[in-house]
Amino acid sequence: MQGDVEPVECVFCHELSQDNDGAGLIVYRGKTAFVLLNRYPYTTGHLMVVPFSHSGSLDLLDVATRAEMIELTTHSVEVIKKVYHPDGFNIGANIGSAAGAGVTGHVHIHVVARWIGDTNFMATLAETRVLPEQLATTYERICSNWI
Predict the structure, then answer these.
(1) pLDDT tens, the chain, 147 aa long
(2) Which residue in the list 46, 75, 108, 110 is annotated as catalytic?
(3) Which domain holds residue 53?
(4) Cys-Cys crosslink for 76: which of 71, 90, 111, 143, Cβ 3.0 to 4.6 Å?
(5) Phi and psi torsions of 47, nearest 5°
(6) Active-site residue 110, yes or no?
(7) Is 4 contained in some domain?
(8) pTM (2 decimals)?
């Protein structure tokens, strides 16, 4: 019917509903939140911590979910440190389109490893990122160290 708009499925809800965590790059499923690899990583090991609940903002989540998200964020940092030995991290959530959120309806926390000099001419001038390994390798390395 003309004028009808097909609803857009949330990428996080879609991955969560699947039964193949490897295909969805889901590293860990907790009680109220999960961790997955970003398909379009800023740097190697770029993880996202996502609540099961489809909510657009942290303040709309219950205390237990927010607490688990922080614990999973902390554990993500520990695992990435062990596997990749970065010089630092960017951790944050873009809430709302004005803040740069790519997925506006489902809040999530980015955990991005950083190295001195990781922003080079490719990212700055060519708007291209160069990653030293394929996502499947990153997924395997992160999962095998997620204890």
Answers:
(1) 444 545 568 999 999 999 999 999 999 999 999 999 999 998 999 999 999 999 999 999 999 999 999 999 999 999 999 999 999 999 999 998 888 878 889 999 999 999 998 775 444 444 555 567 899 999 999 999 998
(2) 108
(3) 11-144
(4) 111
(5) -110, 160
(6) no
(7) no
(8) 0.87
